[in-house]
UniProtKB/TrEMBL annotation:
UniProt KW keywords: Membrane, Protein transport, Transport
Species classification: Eukaryota, Metamonada, Carpediemonas-like organisms, Kipferlia
Protein name in the entry: Clathrin/coatomer adaptor adaptin-like N-terminal domain-containing protein
A Pfam family annotated for this UniProt entry: Adaptin_N
Organism: Kipferlia bialata
A GO cellular component entry from the record: endomembrane system
Length: 115
């Protein structure tokens, strides 16, 4: 079971922010934290998963950013099913459907499903 305490706290603080400006501030701070964790090669796996899930939540709320795809690919390449699931979910949300890596990820998904 994936513990999502950090994700729930973030979502609560985002929802509790009163104005659009306050929400933007919460989102910006969280994006900076996620960028820090995802750029750290020694980051613990649970921090990477949590950061990716926060980015998915932000993307679903309309925020756009140009990072996180490499971490999604690393999660997809992982051996644990929960990491793979988070990686595929995040890739579906973060990656534009018109990009060429979508075809490669589709092939990887097919291999995972047949394994």
């Amino acid at each position: 079971m994936v513990k999502l305490v950090g994700v729930w706290k973030f979502l609560r603080s985002y929802e509790d922010a009163g104005s659009k400006q306050d929400r933007d501030m919460v989102a910006h701070n969280e994006i900076m934290k996620c960028r820090k964790w995802l750029s750290d090669p020694n980051a613990p796996p649970h921090k990477v998963r949590t950061s990716i899930l926060k980015l998915v939540a932000l993307r679903l709320n309309g925020y756009d950013f140009g990072f996180g795809f490499n971490a999604c690919c690393q999660l997809i390449a992982s051996r644990t099913p929960k990491c793979k699931a988070i990686g595929y979910l995040a890739t579906a949300c973060l990656l534009p459907t018109t990009s060429s890596p979508v075809i490669m990820l589709t092939n990887t998904l097919m291999e995972d499903l047949t394994a």
